[in-house]
Amino acid sequence: MKIINKVMIIVLILISNITIGQNGTTQDKNIFTKIELLVRHSRKIIDKEVHITIFNRPEPKKSEIFVWTTDADKETSVKPDFRIKISKDEYSQIEKLIHSIDIDSFVKFENRIGVDGYECQLTYGDSMSSISLNAWSPSSNTEERQLQTYLKVCNMILKAAKKEEL
User: Fold this and answer.
1) Which of 77, 45, 55 is nearest to 160 (CA)?
2) Any idea what the Cα angle at residue 87 is, between residues 82 and 88, rounded to 5°?
3) Whole-angstrom distance, CA of residue 96 vs CA of residue 82
4) What pLDDT, in 10s, does the model give residues 35-62?
5) Extents of the domains making up the chain
6) What is the H or E stretch that residue 51 is in?
7) What's the maximum distance between 2 C-alpha atoms anywhere in the chain?
8) Does domain 31-160 match CATH 1.10.287?
9) CA dihedral 78, 79, 83, 87 (to 10 degrees)
């Protein structure tokens, strides 16, 4: 009886390891991810928001960028102003740079506080979880606040969406 229990446990462990291994490789290729950038200018400067969403779907060979520009007082419409396609390679470059942002330094410097300027909110994740990083005027005192990588990501997204750099 004890031998059968041990054999069953070993078989269950092997099956669970095989399943976990297969899910890990399959999931990486089939996961739906998105990157969002929201730029809000201070109402004293410009009354506009720019909302850029990049969807990376598992199947098509290209990712899609959706761009919304709205008045700050109004709700974002469901239909984007325009959409463009970018290559999976471009998406991967942006994604790789996001992964290299030092979250500890970002939080340590309280980068989301400011009086005049603009706010950038960068969100990255999948359908189950995401992380958002807010920075006030990241092009101001960038090195001092250790926002070089964050600003580079924001500018890459804006360039991909055919917009001006911050």
Assistant:
1) 55
2) 120
3) 25
4) 999 888 776 555 677 888 888 877 766 7
5) 1-30, 31-160
6) strand 48-56
7) 78
8) no
9) 40
